[in-house]
Write a structure and sequence with these properties.
Blueprint: H1 3-14, E1 32-33, E2 36-37, E3 40-44, E4 47-51, E5 55-58, E6 61-64, E7 69-72, E8 78-81, E9 85-86, E10 92-93, E11 115-116, E12 122-123
Antiparallel strand pairs: 1-2, 3-4, 5-6, 7-8, 9-10, 11-12
C-alpha cells in the first residue's frame, strides 16, 4: 500500500473528513462499492443512510469513530467500546483481570454468568437461577 495515501487517510480520519481514495483499513475505509462507500451499509445513490460499526453518519457520509470505539453516534463520544477499553472515548484500558471486558462508564469488570467479585473470578454462592448473582457479594438474584 502506498504510505503517502495511507498517511493522508489516517490524518483525515482523525480530523473527521471523508476520504475518497482507495485505502482499506477498518477506520479509514472509503473504497467505493458501486455508488456506496464500503463503510456504508445502506445508501441511496451516493448518499449513505447507515454506516457499519466503527463509523458514524454525518451529512450522508460515514466517518470513523475513535480507534477503540465499537459504535459511536458522533466523533466525540463512543456508545460502545471494544471489550478491552472503557470511557467516553474508549481510550482507557480495562484492568488486566477483567476477562470479559469492563463497563464503559466506570471501568468495572463485566462478569460472566455464575461469577462475581472485583475481578469476576469467584463462583456464585450456590446454584443461582439462570446463573445470575450479585456482582458485589455473590448472592443469587431473586426472581
Amino acid at each position: 500500500m502506498n504510505r503517502v495515501i495511507y498517511k493522508e487517510a489516517f490524518l483525515r480520519h482523525f480530523f473527521k473528513e471523508p476520504i475518497n481514495t482507495n485505502v482499506s483499513h477498518k477506520h479509514v475505509s472509503f473504497i467505493q462499492q458501486g455508488d456506496c462507500a464500503l463503510s456504508c451499509t445502506s445508501c441511496s445513490g451516493s448518499k449513505c443512510n447507515k454506516c457499519q460499526d466503527g463509523y458514524f453518519l454525518d451529512s450522508n457520509k460515514c466517518y470513523g469513530c475513535g480507534i477503540f470505539c465499537q459504535t459511536c453516534s458522533d466523533a466525540r463520544n463512543c456508545d460502545t467500546c471494544l471489550s478491552e477499553y472503557w470511557g467516553r472515548k474508549c481510550d482507557t484500558m480495562c484492568q488486566v483481570e477483567c476477562k470479559h471486558g469492563c463497563d464503559i462508564d466506570d471501568g468495572s469488570c463485566m462478569c460472566a454468568l455464575e461469577y462475581w467479585g472485583r475481578a469476576c473470578d469467584t463462583m456464585c454462592v450456590g446454584r443461582c437461577e439462570a446463573g445470575m448473582c450479585d456482582k458485589d457479594d455473590g448472592s443469587c438474584y431473586m426472581c
